[in-house]
């Protein structure tokens, strides 16, 4: 079966944990926003672009939690932190998810969309896997933020903060206009419900003057009242999947080749349709480069 090959941003082998020391404020602010928007419980949640599982401790109300990332090395770190039990680790492509249609209650992408070159295709796939009225919580890098507007007025901005087009400021690093994200969500079948302005105080001078906890507390106070201005560098959105009610799928996973629901047999995901199977290696199922279909 033919599939479009998309560019991907691969964190394989990178020390992403080393990115976070010195960013305690941003981490706390993002956690605050996610707690506000996240439905507290459900059957299944998928964190797309979960990395080493930075936010996974917030998903305790879900019976099954899928941590998915293109970088297997990141998922190995997550597996070391959280083990198995309710957690499932999938190395996979967001454009080609090995999840059944209408299978999950909640999907999350935080610090992920700025690495996505084809937003409409990614959102369509997220919409597919969500149950009717399922919740999608996304975060995106806002190019129309206050700092960038000032830079634009001074003639120092290359991002064109008032244009709708995504801006690729580095290879596979994108900033987005709020109107573009809103329109893309609606075209993909989502109804935006709530927005939060996050990391509004992300300025070096403020980070030198105030402790991360103080900044995070103030950020929390600003998130809802300032959301409508859409001036923060990071914006969180909670959207509802609009789709027809149907029979709830019995399987959580589906075959990448023939789309048959996968059977969970101990530590194997097996496709009765084409005979393909996936086995975990060190706790991680690898769906990035599937094995050849048995003849």
Question: In words, what does this structure look like?
Answer:
It is a single chain. The protein is an alpha/beta fold. The chain has a single domain (16-250), classed as 3-Layer(aba) Sandwich (Rossmann fold), CATH 3.40.50.150. Helix content is 25%, strand content 25%. The chain has 7 helices and 13 strands. The strands form 3 sheets. The protein has an 8-stranded mixed beta sheet, sandwiched between helices. Strands 10-11-12 form a 3-stranded antiparallel beta sheet, with no helix packed on it.
Secondary structure topology:
Elements: H1 24-37, E1 42-48, E2 62-69, H2 72-82, E3 87-91, E4 104-109, H3 119-129, E5 130-141, H4 146-153, E6 167-170, E7 173-175, H5 178-188, E8 190-198, H6 204-209, H7 212-223, E9 234-241, E10 262-265, E11 268-271, E12 277-278, E13 284-286
Parallel strand pairs: 1-2, 1-4, 2-3, 3-13, 4-5
Antiparallel strand pairs: 5-9, 6-7, 8-9, 10-11, 11-12
Helix pairs in contact: 1-7, 3-5
* CATH architecture descriptor: 3-Layer(aba) Sandwich
The helix tally amounts to: 7
Strand content: 25-35%
Helicity level = 10-25%
- For the biggest β-sheet, the strand order reads 8-9-5-4-1-2-3-13
CATH top-level class: Alpha Beta
Topology as H/E string? HEEHEEHEHEEHEHHEEEEE
Oligomer: single chain
pLDDT averaged residue by residue: 95
From the spread of the alpha carbons, the general shape counts as globular
Give start-end ranges of low-pLDDT stretches: none
Helix/sheet category: alpha/beta
If you compute it from the alpha carbons, what radius of gyration comes out, rounded to the nearest whole angstrom? 19 Å
N-C termini distance: 15 Å
Could you name the CATH homologous superfamily? Vaccinia Virus protein VP39
Kindly identify the CATH topology: Rossmann fold
The tally of domains stands at 1
Task: Give me the count of strands.
Answer: 13
Largest sheet: 8 strands, mixed
């Amino acid at each position: 079966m033919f599939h479009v090959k998309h560019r991907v941003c691969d964190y394989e082998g990178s020390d992403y944990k080393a990115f976070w020391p010195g960013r305690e404020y941003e981490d706390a602010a993002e956690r605050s926003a996610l707690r506000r928007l996240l439905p507290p419980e459900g059957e299944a949640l998928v964190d797309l672009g979960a990395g080493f599982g930075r936010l996974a401790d917030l998903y305790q109300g879900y019976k099954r939690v899928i941590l998915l990332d293109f970088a297997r090395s990141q998922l190995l770190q997550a597996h070391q932190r959280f083990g198995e039990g309710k957690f499932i680790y999938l190395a996979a492509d967001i454009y080609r998810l090995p999840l059944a249609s209408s299978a999950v209650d909640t999907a999350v992408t935080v610090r992920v969309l700025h690495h996505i070159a084809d937003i409409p295709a990614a959102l369509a796939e997220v919409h597919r896997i969500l149950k009717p009225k399922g919740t999608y919580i996304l975060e995106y890098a806002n190019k129309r933020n206050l700092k960038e507007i000032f830079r634009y007025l001074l003639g120092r901005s290359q991002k064109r903060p008032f244009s709708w087009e995504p801006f690729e400021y580095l290879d596979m690093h994108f900033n987005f206009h709020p109107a573009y994200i809103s329109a893309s969500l609606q075209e993909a079948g989502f109804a935006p419900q709530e927005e939060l302005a996050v990391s509004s105080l992300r300025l070096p001078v403020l980070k030198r003057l105030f402790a991360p906890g103080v900044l995070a507390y103030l950020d929390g106070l600003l998130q809802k009242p300032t959301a409508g201005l859409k001036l923060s560098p990071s914006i969180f959105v909670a959207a509802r999947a609009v789709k027809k009610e149907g029979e709830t799928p019995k399987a959580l996973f589906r075959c990448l080749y023939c789309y048959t629901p996968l059977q969970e047999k101990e530590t194997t995901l097996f496709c009765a349709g084409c005979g393909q199977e996936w086995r975990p290696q060190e706790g991680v199922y690898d769906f990035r480069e599937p094995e050849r279909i048995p003849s």
